[in-house]
Amino acid sequence: MNVAVALRVLSTASWFLALAVIVLAIVRAGRNQPFKAAGSLVVGAVVVALLLTVVSAGLVFIQPEERGVVISAVDPDGYRDTPLEPGLHWIIPFAENVVIYPISRQTYTMSIASSEGSVEGDDSIFARTADGQEVLVDASVIFAIDPVKVVDVHIQWQNRYTDDLIRPLVRGVIRDAASQYGIEEIVSSKRIEMTEGVRAEIETKLAENGLILVDYVLRNITFSEEYAASVEQKQIAEQQAQQAKFVVEQRKQEAEQARQTAQGQADARVIAAKGDAEARLINAEAEAKALGLIAAALQDNPDLITYQYVMKLAPGIQVMLVPSDNPYLLPLPTLTPGTQP
What is the 3-state secondary structure (H, E, C) of 110-122? Predict the structure, then answer.
């Protein structure tokens, strides 16, 4: 409780005290009971009440989040040019009074939801786009009274600045901005641009009327049922197209994977064939060298092959039958008739 309020309370209490003393004096007089100090008490209580009333009427305390506009009966303009700053101030009792204005931030909301807006019920902003579509816009304006221009606000708007300035101004600016864009632009590509344009226009208009725009919030955009249905159908078609494209890409990837697998298998077979050919070539070269060595050995020792043949025979063989009408596979030693081996 500040000093000005406390003085008003004391002033009221003193008037009740003076009234109580007067009533007590009347009652005692009706009972023929003398009340010698009644007159002095009544005069004293009235004087104190008047003094407190005058002082309390002249003291005004302004809170930090407030500014005061002094309405003066002694000023030629009817008001003081300078608003009262926070603190305790003295004004001329009964000739001046103070109108308090908040300079803290205020929010004015227009919403399709009945419980969210500053006005109960559907208070969204109806607008029509450049291509004739209907939209409902939810928006909030956060603003404050310019402390330097409080007197101007009082002269131009008093306490009607929300209903008579903020509300119609914002609704008109949003309608004008929406009419410059197509519905598709508002939904996607131009939404930020439209929001910034609305913000700049509102800021300029409020500044001209002594208000400061803190922020503009585009809360939501609601479309007509017909357009919402068309958007839904379009989204479904786009999703189906995306799904079909995905299937095609998947098939392409599967075909490419199969091609690469087949190519890998073919490459593997080629590599294996080359390996077999090289192995055969190496074996042939080795066999040729071996045969060359064998031929050279046989050339120097022709009986070597006979020796190898004999060594391959089973060790227990004593008799060997050979055909009579075919040449011998190996040269046999010449036998002289009548000789024994």
Answer: ECCCCCCCCCCCC
Give the model confidence (pLDDT) of 48-70 as tens digits. 888 888 888 888 999 999 999 99
Kindly report the length of the chain.
Answer: 341
Residues spanned by the domain of 57 = 3-101
Are 33 and 18 in the same domain? yes
Residues 131 and 110 in one domain: yes
Is 0.70 surpassed by the pTM of this model? Answer: no
Judge residue 63's burial from the number of C-beta atoms within 10 Å of its C-beta, 0-12 exposed, 13-18 middle, 19 or more buried: middle
- Tokens of residue 23, six digits: 């009533």
Last residue of a domain, one of 195, 223, 251: 223
Domain CATH number, residue 181: 3.30.479.30
b/e burial code for range 260-293 (CB count within 10 A of at least 16 → b): eeeeeeeeeeeeeeeeeeeeeeeeeeeeeeeeee
| pLDDT tens-digit readout, 117-140 | 888 888 899 999 998 888 899 999
Residue whose C-alpha is closest to residue 224's, from 135, 112, 113: 135
For residues 256 and 204, what is the distance between their CA atoms, to the nearest angstrom?
62
Same domain, 131 and 59: no
